[in-house]
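Input set for joint prediction.
Command: fold jointly, output tokens.
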Amino acid sequence: MFAWFFQFAPAIAVLPFVSFLLALVAGRWLPRKGALAGILATGGSLLLSLGVLAAVVSGHTHEQTLYTFVDAQETFSLTFGILLDQLSAAMLVIVSLIAFLVHVFSLGYMNAEGEPGLPRYYAGLGLFSASMLAFVFADNLLMAFVFFELVGLCSWLLIGHWFRDPAPASAAKKAFLVTRFGDYFFLVGVVAVLVTFGTAQFAGADGFPALAAEAIDAGESFFGLSAEAWVSVIGLLVLGGVIGKSAQFPLHTWLPDAMQGPTPVSALIHAATMVAAGVYLVARMYGFYLLSPTVLGIIAFVGGFTALFAATMGVVKNELKQVLAYSTISQYGYMMLALGAGSYVAAFFHLTTHAIFKALLFLGAGAVIVAMHHDEDMWLMGGLREHMRVTYLTFLAGSLALAGIFPFAGFWSKDEVLFDTLVVGLEQPLLLVAYLMALAAVFVTAFYTIRMVLLTFHGDPRTDVAESPHAVGLSIKAPLVVLGVLAVVAGAINLVPVEKLTGLRVSFLSSFLGSDRGLLTHNAHYVDLRTEYAGYETGAIVSEPVTVLLGVALGFGLAIAGAVAAFLLYRDADPVRHTERLGSIHTLLVHNYYQDEYQVWLAEGLSLRTARAADTFDQGVIDGAVNATSSVSLLSGDRIRRVQTGVVTNYAALVVLGLLALLVGFALYGGWF
Amino acid sequence: MLEAVPVEYYLVLSAAVFCIGLFGVLTRRNALMFLMSVELMLNAANINLVAFALYWGELTGQVFVLFTMSLAAAEVAIGIGIILVLYRNYDDVDVTDATTMRW
Amino acid sequence: MAVVPYELLAFLLFALVTVGASLGVVLVRDVWHAALLLGVALLSVAIHYVMLRAEFLAVMQVLVYVGGVLVLITFAVMFTRRVPIEEREGVAE
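tokens >
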């Protein structure tokens, strides 16, 4: 009954694009400089996405080619199309919801503050939303790549919104270049997929994941590699783009710098759009990744490592948004871990809940920043809960969700990620290592989250500004309330532990993602692939319910432990900077493990030197050879031209001599003498 | 009658006149002398042609001589023009003066 | 019997004239004399043509060379005549 929504599906991305065009061309004359157009457009997208989701829930799917821009006869055609299955429909709702709320929030954050360049800002937001939505419903890898790149472009535009300051401008450049570095591999991967399989479609028996599975079954070989190895190579190439966009180690360095952009943009980038794009891409072509246990292992390990690695850096940060930035990297690590462990549902579940609570936290941070007159240092805050009740409560809900405290959304999703990794890890030692790292990250996450809340909202005000903060408006509070409620209840969409323990059918997301719609993108198919190709087996400690309880106890216990530890250390009215007692570890963490330093060294010390050497070689040897040739010609020409006397007599004499020489030559040759 | 004067004699005469012309070209610096020496060389060639025309009993050689004559006339006309320009520019007809176009 | 080879004698005579005049052309100092000697040489070549039974060519030789080419050369000689300065001044007076 909802299937007629499908014909309006392209409008989901077109509406924000129209708002982008409007803001770009006529933003100066629009009411609120384009904010209203953006709100209307993303609101429309949200409604349509909900309609599409309802249609998919009621059992329909939709796959359609919209535009063929290269119609090839002999090889492959290049097309744009839409694929609406469970994954993309659910993701569309998340993205459009966050985009809508961010637009509303911007009204209070940007417009009320009298920022300049608002049309440019709203144009960027519109294009950002449009590209992300189009990326989500892309039905083939090439289209996904195109919009993936557009998302990267928009992040550059928006992070560098205050481009007159050197810091945002440089952060924007860094975000663009680092993600571009990853996208380079992605592009090669796209070409490899097209060349190998002749199609880049995600879904169905004609899609490249299905073709790759067939090729492995048939024992084919590509370019001298076996099908398995070649699939792994392509998987790793595409993974380059994923690691860049989803800010996984070692390409995570752009994300903390991206905090230089306006806070609503940070919320959009980190919660639902740019960073989520990487994880979403892996989920989108998950049928392909499941064919290669090697790549899955790498994904899991990178994810687990990033989760812990980023979380430890979050502990020592003093700026509110920096803490959130590192938590973002860490949480996306969890999603990658889940994907690597073969748990498609858990990854998407965590993506969903994270989108909600991270958007909430960023918007809450935005509210705090507005209240603090754009001061971000948590040590200058304190006691804000007295003045901003709504912000405090919603921010607390988001923080508890992030920390993984029962019964907030983050608890359920993180627990599922950890549980799924654990049961696979019991049979795969590498995944067990990744699991242990992620488990340790739970403690650290809870610690820095509670520390952040306590420093910001509790204790005594530490500055005059914190004592009488700036009031925030309704357009800031409304999105917070919406997201705050969601952060509390969103976990209910997939209560897997409850189902496992009591037998009640309450894992709605699992059954939604698991049902077969004939597109080969449902979870049941992925579970088959996981067993068949990746060779993952699941183990249990004693029995499944015991394992479930043990997993919950470990995850929740560590979260509580981290939260309590932070509470004990920072509950004072005037807290002490405990992290500084860590000594050299503190220094290491404050400097982000010197990741930036070595990457700058790679860029300036290595690349630049290599380029200089190449330049010297070019100037000296290549150009030198060319110049030498010309100098030799010039010099010899200068000498030889002296032969020309200009005296006609000499020429005549030479002609006669030549003639005589010829005569003598012919005479000797002809045998006259 | 026909062979009263052997053709070799004419060849020797022709060669002699040609060499004299060549000598003139190579030794004199006066442009007019150049012109006259070239005329001598052309005439030497003509004698050659006419002698062989008689020797072979063919008129082709004589026809060729007609062409050579018209060529020589044209050449002299052009040569005169060049020499006059040379004279105007250098106030002399010495060919070794006009060396400015070498490099 | 000893027939006097008149033709051979004529050839030798005129060959002598031709070579002598030619040598004169390239050896004399004065250009004007050289031009006149060239005329002699050309006329003697015309006589050779007659002896080679090319009467038409002989006529042409006289017409074109002596009547045309030589006149042109004479012109040139007169145009480019280097008159000593004192003599030119004398003419001007």
